[in-house]
Amino acid sequence: MNSRQSSKKSNPTDSVRLDDVSLVLNGRQILRDVSLRIGFHECVAIVGPNGAGKTTLLKVICGLLSPSAGRVEILGTRLDRKSLQRLQRQIAYLPQDVSIDPRTPISVEEVIEIGRFSQGWLRQRLSAADRAAIEEAMRVTGIANLRGRPFGLLSAGQKQRVGLARALAQEASIMLLDEPLSNLDPEAQQDVCAAIDRIHASTDVTVLLVTHLIEKIPACCRRTLKMNEGTIVGETGIQAGAGV
Amino acid sequence: MSDILGYQFMQNALLAAILGGLGCGIIGVWVVLLRIPFIGVAMSHAAFAGAIIALLIGLNPLGLALVASILAAAIIGPLSDRINLDTNLSMGIVFSMLVGIAFLGIGLMRGPRTEALNLLWGNILTLERGDLILLAIATVVTLAFTAVCYRQLRAIIFNRMIARMSGIPDKLLFYGTLLISGTTITLNLKTIGGLLIFSLIINPPLAAYQLTYSLVRMLILSALFGIASCLVGLWLSYVFDLPTGAIIILTSGIILIICNLLSPKR
Fold first, then answer.
1. Confidence category of residue A76, pLDDT binned at 50, 70, 90
2. Residue A115 C-alpha from the chain's centroid
3. Does the predicted interface ipTM exceed a cut of 0.95?
4. Contact between B91 and B41 (Cβ < 8 Å)
5. Can you list the pairs that B164-169 forms with residues at least 24 positions away whose Cβ atoms lie under 8 Å?
């Protein structure tokens, strides 16, 4: 269902707004007239089969891909070349696959620190606020005991929770999670879902989560958008600020 | 041995060994972890070819070597950024062309080719004060770059896209690394030689990589392995009257093999 009835005027309660967004890549139509609105502190799941365009949609929202047509707004500001860098710092993006050589010399705590560069990339040292944010992120995601471990040696579930911690440490307004439950065993999926629920409950971050596992959506996701063949074909649940 | 240390040329060689080993060891860590060894090899061959052409036309070899290595990075770097470049194909084309140009240049030289051959094999014993000053400056710049951009480079090593989205100018730092690599390579041409210099950039950090999961320790170990390779290689070449550049590289290779065998990461 495309929300073509959406008002042309920006609604300041929207974290993310897409108006008739289309994307053609290498001659292929990947996204087709996608319109959606995600309110502040909403948690929305986007589900659909492989190849539906879910990952591409996330990449358009976080500015990694530019739409061929349509308009993207983040926190009431149009996403374009001028606003891209500033708005990207407000978006924490967890890509589907962050595979690195297991021998890479970087620890869990050092990965989470990356999130703090959103506060200023030139800084040489971590401030007290940085350390507090990192500690809180590790506490919420339940990985404080892993802080000194090499990231490459973690299990898939642990890596996903580290990714969530990094996103949380960024203190971004919007969190985009691309298939956070894929390739995880059931216990790890539960842990990651629980971490997402805790993050949503303890902060005011807006969460947009992409998954093909319809039965494993975190409890905090009150709305689900269904995608197929590059467009939104259905919606279930309650939209925040409904009636607008 | 103590007698020979009284001579200026040997003191210069010792200092060059320490500076070269240190600079190559440090910048090599970023080249290895950023997964750009093929760009580095192209830069070293380009520097060598540029130096030979400079000699052929009567110019200072270092200047054209630096220009050529940076040009190689400027062409291959963005290409590898934008497209999924087949590295085997690009390496094959670049190496064959650059090495061909270099040896063509040597072949076209009239008269003695000593200076050209020194650039090919390296001759640490012929370094002068001016060479050492340049080497010292390059090493200081490498150390300063690492100290200032350490956390940012570490983020880029983890994932360039995530680093970029966090606000880090990944392209700027990536090309900065290439520029410093090119400078280090060029200024060590006389020390190690154009065909071998890249091994001194790759072997010490690879050896360090086998032994630790800490990036700080990897930098320290790589620097120590680089310095040790150069000093041990210099000493062995003096004792057994062997080509210094080759012995330095063989020493670095043996250190790498030993570290691989002892690696807790196996």
1. very high
2. 13
3. no
4. yes
5. B164/A88, B165/A62, B165/A64, B165/A88, B165/A89, B165/A91, B165/A93, B166/A89, B166/A114, B166/A115, B166/A117, B166/A118, B166/A121, B166/A170, B167/A85, B167/A88, B167/A89, B167/A117, B167/A118, B167/A120, B167/A121, B168/A117, B168/A121, B169/A121
Give the closest of A113, A118, A150 to B213, CB-based. A150
pLDDT per position as a tens digit, B12-58: 999 999 999 999 999 999 999 998 887 778 888 888 889 889 988 88
Decide: A211 and A221 in contact? Cβ < 8 Å: no
Q: Which residues of B touch A88 (CB under 8 A)?
A: 164-165, 167
Distance CA B217, CA B208 (A): 8
Q: Which residue of A has its CA nearest to B210?
A: A103
Query: Could you write out the DSSP letters of every residue in B191-259?
Result: HH-TTTHHHHHHHHHHHHHTT-S-HHHHHHHHHHHHHHHHHHHHHHHHHHT--HHHHHHHHHHHHHHHH
Contact residues, chain A to chain B, C-beta under 8 Å = 62, 64, 85, 88-89, 91, 93, 95, 98, 100, 102-107, 110-111, 113-115, 117-118, 120-121, 124, 150-151, 153, 166, 170
Provide the percentage of residues in chain B whose pLDDT is more than 70. Answer: 94
Residues of chain B predicted below pLDDT 50: none
> Residue B84, SS3?
coil
Rounded to 5 degrees, what angle do the CA atoms A65, A67, A72 make? 95
SS3 readout for chain A: CCCCCCCCCCCCCEEEEEEEEEEEECCEEEEEEEEEEEECCCEEEEECCCCCCHHHHHHHHCCCCCCCEEEEEECCEECCHHHHHHHHCCEEEECCCCCCCCCCCCEHHHHHHHHHHHHCCCCCCCCHHHHHHHHHHHHHHCCHHHCCCEHHHCCHHHHHHHHHHHHHHCCCCEEEEECCCCCCCHHHHHHHHHHHHHHHHHCCCEEEEEECCHHHCCCCCCEEEEEECCEEEEEEECCCCCCC
Which of B162, B212, B260 is the mutation pick for testing A, counting most A CBs within 10 A? B162
* B 138-167 near A (Cβ less than 8 A): 148, 151-152, 154-155, 157-159, 161-167
Q: For residue A103, how many other CB atoms are within 10 A of its CB?
A: 16
Determine the distance from the C-alpha atom of residue A189 to the mean position of all C-alpha atoms in its chain, rounded to a whole number.
17
Q: Provide, as residue numbers in chain B, all residues whose Cβ is less than 8 Å from the Cβ of A110.
A: 154, 158, 215
User: pTM of the predicted model, to two decimals?
Assistant: 0.87
